[in-house]
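Give me the fold.
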Amino acid sequence: MPNSVAIVTGASQGIGKATALRLARDFSSLVLIARDEAHLQETAQQAKSFGAESLVLPLDLREPAAAEKTVNDALQRFGRVDALLNIAGAVPQIDLFEMSDAQWDDGMALKFHGARRLTIKAWDALKASKGSVVLLSGLAAWDPQPGFAAVAATNAAIIALAKAFAEQGIKDGVQVNSVSPGAVMTGRRQSFFEKWAPAHHLTVEEAIKKFPEESGISRFGQPEEIADLLAYLVSAPAKWLTGASLRMDGGEFKGI
């Protein structure tokens, strides 16, 4: 889209980076947010090959001031915001009975509160452009387990938050949806298996092979597959789709 601007959080790696590069084909400008400036610059250089100009903002969205800076800098540089994709956030995978208050707070700080603040700060600009918002949740919201309690609770809260924003968006002309990816092979997941496998007397390769079989899926997802779905949700053909919570998990969750 000519003269169109998308904000992508978590754009330094994984699904966030894949989404930024996918959106570089559709938007003229990107605002890339993450803490790792070097990796953000890599994303920006790769996005440039698709013709998109990037504004790189190395910020920690846990900090309340980061949301206002993001929106102010985006408007100062590009004059508008057409899409906001809240992808940043990793929540500790710690047993429900062992997780401290501080760990709960930190898990919510970025993925939930960072996305909430940024969406609110960007709302007026999104109203002006009749824009779109996507919040990234996760499959654990649909199947809470003690070992992933914080992940499940945070992701469920994100789904509820997205629906609340969507209700207001119907009045204001802002489209809002959430997406719950399943087992996507990112660098973070690879690191998880590198720690998990030895504790279960497996090689990393054995653990990676075993997980899809036990989860009832044929393979891991790829970040680019989630990125394609996110790109569709902020495209013109998807404008009537709002207030939805979409799962993309290879069939792992079988509930209705």
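The longest strand covers residues 175-181.
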